[in-house]
Design goal:
2 strands; mainly alpha; about 55% helix; Hypothetical protein af1432
Amino acid sequence: MTEQTRAEHVADDWMQTSLGLAFRPLTPDPDLIDGFDIAHALGMLCRYNGHCSRFYSVAEHCVLISEAVSPENALWGLLHDATEAYVGDMIRPLKRSGRMQAYIDAEAAVMRAICDRFGLPHECPAEVHEADLRILNDERIALMAPPPLPWVSSELVPPLGVTIDGWSPDEAGRRYLRRLNELCTEVAR
């Protein structure tokens, strides 16, 4: 197989979503982004690569961010980790290592497609970034063993002040989708 053939094959490769759609994460189509798929997948994904004291979904994390930021940024807050429904999550040390450019590029392409699908600007608002950093303190206190080293970036800001409940995957998916419906008039087709 030539390099060009391999590249064409990979770009055309697809994954099946929970609704049964064929989604191509390397060439994402905004028309194939579905709120139910996002809610379901994020409800099933555990934060911190599963290294927390109890199950805590990406969906719950996103709902908490969405409720903590201003109304004009609430949809961005809810969708800020929606890429993980399509490309999974990568822990921060790997993502920041400079060795994961293909993943970072794919994640950025999927985020642009999500923004296009939901009518959001492509740039994440600073308020959402700040809330995402601050919630690390709430999550660390509620879910993690005592840290062996400082969590330097999050320790520079106060906690967001949210309560971590640890919703079940089904409940997390339902609450995420309900919040998405509150913020959008058209979620799924």
